[in-house]
Amino acid sequence: MGDGLASESDLLDMVCNHLQYLKFAEFEETVKVFEKEARRKGKPVLRSAGHSRRDSKTISIHDDFLSSFNDGDYKVFSELWAKTIPPEIRDFDPVAQKLEFYLQIHFTIYPLKSPVGSHDKGEFENRITHFKHYLETRGAALSQTTEFLPFYALPFVPNPTVHPSFQELFQDSWMPELRERLEKFLSVTLKASNTPRLLTLYVSFLCILQGSIQQMQLHLTEVERKSAICMRRFTKLQADHHNLIGITAELVDSLEATVRGKMISPEYLQGVCMRLFSGHMRQSAAQSVDFTRPGTASSMLRASVAPQPKDVPLLPSLDYEKLKKDLVNGSDRLKALLLQALRWRLTRSLHGEQRDTVLQAFISNDLLERYSSKQKTVLNLMKSKNEIVRQYMARLINAFASLCDGRMYLSQIPSLLRFLLDSLKTEEKESVTRENVLAAMQKLSLRRAQQSAMIRDGLIGWLVKELHDSDCLSDYTLEYAISLLMNLCLRTQGKKKCAEEAKHVLIVLTELLGHENHEIRYYVNGALYSILSMPEIREEAKQMSMEEILRCYTKEENSELNRQIEFIIKQLNSDIPELEPESDDEEDDDDDDEEDVMEADLDKEEVLQPQPKELSGESLLTTEYLGIMTNMVMMKRRSYPPSSRTIDEPLQRPVTPSSHKNTIYYQHSDSFARSRSANVSVFIFFHVNISQ
């Protein structure tokens, strides 16, 4: 019986806690009914006297807050803030965080608001030290917000009262407006601080849950990154295995023929060695080696690593005239299935001769109808009313642009850039179509002629506007947008465009320095370093206290990025004269130095799935569109990776995110293997001949 009474008492306590919530939420009628019935049954209820005492205490705390605000007493105010504002509001509520930032500014500059000549410099210096500590701790969370970015330079400005960036702080209206914001916040928050424990537990649980989700997302991203690295290594090893098996079989046959007395010609031996070492030598260099000399092939074999696959089957030829006809005149579903199948031919073919042959067949048969005089061509699918058709056309163009010869082919289509620009401006912000269009344009920006056209068409202004709201962009879009901006900023024309809206460009770039996606920092640094070669941009940056803002980002652990920022600061303080007009030679491209990389994102989130018994992919192509002798077997020209100048400087040549990451991985795989850190440091490569 005693246990039953104790349990009933506990339950009544829980009910009373719920009653607190009902009073807090102003369910007045419900509370009255509950209290009336509780009294009738002789059950205890919450006493209103406790509320009266709490109300009087709340009023006292409210008055203490405003008094310390008016007197500039930041010590008393800080103690009240820490004791009375609940942690879940103080640490996670955006309104509270922004208000706290402005309150910190108020208390920091308070000594400067006394009459001229009576400023307490010692007190101001103490408060500046306190404000620096705040910026490095609690205030660090707002360093990515444009609204607060200029105030991170406040501790480094000798006399803020005359600095143009801080004039607003010393206007007569600023302090009363801030006080009004504080009063509104306190009237809501102090009431909320008396909330029942039920609500407090709920809010705390949500905060913990959000933190756990964020940690899981970070872990998932890291696992996906490691998985992509392993997949690239596996694909490469698999291709090497096929290549070596084929060459081994040929050599065994040749050895048997030699036993039977048949001689092996030097030309045959040279052909085998060309295939074996094709991934590590230029064709001309391989042809110049005398393979008839004893030991030549074996010495090269010992010195080589991972030869490129050559002995792989070619895919069947296709009837490209029928293909292009159905792409233009077929149903929307057929168009989408064909575009998907053609893209898969590129993305799923083996790296090397098989993929080169597929691409050369597409180009030699003019798949995108570059030379067609018809009004309605395959390229017009970019304007289709069907969203899936537009998306799959954009994916195919992106796949073309991932390969050097594909970019050369696309660059010969005069109307292509106009189609892509129109699509950027009309497609939904985070659509897969828009992502692929942006990525294709970024890859095309490796070519000077396309850079010039993009700059003339105002793409820099569009990119700056998009990046201003970077938190709403996917990682894929963000990386390709900022790397495209960097590529265009490397040109003199692009720098001059940036100079026309220098302040806006600088604000966006410095905001991106604090973005949680650290992969973009290399491109942001490259863009900043490039545009700061313009005197007018350097002057605008100095007025914004850019050096002080940049130094706020050198406190991170990534020493390479920190050294890049030092180069940017050196550029900012340099005295470089007006740039010389750049060459009109549009053939001087950096494209040949970029390795062909077919990223996995090209085939992500396939929205088109075949219906039962419906042909798709390679089966659709080889069943309905089989052709005769349309494949072009060509030796692909090889290029060396970019030469290394220094690992410290920002990027100074056009790159794509996929090839940039790939270069980092293959050049420094040992560093990756040794590193235990999730955010492993990477090296940056540059050309000595910088593209303007």
Automatic annotation (TrEMBL):
Principal subcellular localization: cytoplasm
Record GO cellular component, one term: centriole
Composition bias, Acidic residues: 577-597
Pfam families to which the protein is assigned, alphabetical: ARMC9_ARM, ARMC9_LisH, CTLH_Armc9
Top-level taxon in the UniProt lineage: Eukaryota
One of the protein's GO biological processes: cilium assembly
Subcellular location: Cytoplasm, Cytoskeleton, Cilium basal body; Cytoplasm, Cytoskeleton, Microtubule organizing center, Centrosome, Centriole
Annotated ranges, domain ARMC9 CTLH-like: 61-191
Span list, region Disordered: 576-597, 640-660
Every LisH domain range: 454-573
Keywords (A to Z) from UniProt: Cell projection, Cilium biogenesis/degradation, Cytoplasm, Cytoskeleton
Name listed for the protein in its UniProt record: LisH domain-containing protein ARMC9
